[in-house]
Structure formats: C-alpha cells, structure tokens
Design brief:
This protein has 108 residues and is an all-beta fold. It has a single domain (3-107), classed as Rieske [2Fe-2S] iron-sulphur domain (Rieske Iron-sulfur Protein, 3-layer Sandwich), CATH 2.102.10.10. Helices cover 0% and strands 49% of the residues. The protein is built from no helices and 13 strands. It has strands spanning 3-8, 17-22, 25-32, 35-40, 54-56, 59-61, 68-70, 76-78, 81-82, 85-86, 94-95, 97-100, 103-107. Strands 2-3-4-11 form a 4-stranded antiparallel β-sheet, with no helix packed on it. A 4-stranded antiparallel β-sheet has the order 5-6-7-8, with no helix packed on it. The chain has a 3-stranded antiparallel β-sheet with strand order 1-13-12, with no helix packed on it. The protein binds FE2/S2 (inorganic) cluster. Residues 43, 45-48, 62, 64-65, 67, 80, 87, 89 line the site of FE2/S2 (inorganic) cluster. FE2/S2 (inorganic) cluster (FES) binds next to loops.
Length: 108
C-alpha cells in the first residue's frame, strides 16, 4: 500500500464530505471532528452516490434506497429498501488516512 495526497486538510471542514478520485477509485472523504475517514463513494447496492447522501454523525445514508454505512469502518449498518423490500448492500471498502504537513493522504 502507498499513500497518495488527496486534498489539503483546510479543503474539508468538520461535518463535511467530498468525493475524490485517486488512481481511478472514487473515494468518499469525510471530516468528523477534524478526524478524516475514507471509504468507497459508490454504494455497494446499485452504485448510489454516497457523496450526495446525508451524513448523521458517522453514518452516511445512501440517497438511492437508504442503506446506512459507518464511514469510520465502511461497515453496513442497515439495509435500505426498494419497493418495501430490503436491498442487499455489502460493507464498503475503507481506506487508511494519514495527515501530514497540512495535507490529507489516502492509503491505496
Ligand atoms: S444504491 Fe444504495 S441502497 Fe441502493
């Protein structure tokens, strides 16, 4: 694994999220209380754009069918629903984050 510079720490305030593309991977970066976390930014169900989802604490809610993931770990917390039927999302990949010299690096 190697760490790739993604953004400056000042680019993302606490409580905010953004999508970055690192070496062809779309990654969701989140700042929670000035700690940074990185997961896949596409939902594991049908590719919902999690950067457009609602962030509640450390949980991100998929804007398509409502699956909930913990951005600190990538773990699926709750399956969403499609036509009242539970979908089958899986955990997201989560990536280590390192801060150095005012920059945010993601381990790929
Ligand atoms: S695409 Fe995310 S729950 Fe369906």
């Amino acid at each position: 694994m190697r760490y790739v510079k993604a953004i400056k720490t000042s680019d993302l305030k606490s409580g905010q999220k953004m999508e970055v593309t690192i070496e062809g991977k779309d990654i969701l970066l989140i700042n929670i209380d000035n700690k940074f976390y990185a997961t896949d930014s596409k939902c594991t169900h049908m590719g919902g754009e999690l950067n457009k989802g609602r962030l509640e604490g450390s949980h991100i809610i998929c804007p398509k069918h409502g699956s909930v993931f913990d951005v600190k770990t990538g773990k699926l917390i709750e399956q969403g629903k499609m036509f009242s039927i539970r979908v089958k999302a899986k955990d997201l990949n989560s990536y280590p984050v390192m801060l150095e010299g005012g920059d945010v690096f993601i381990g790929i």
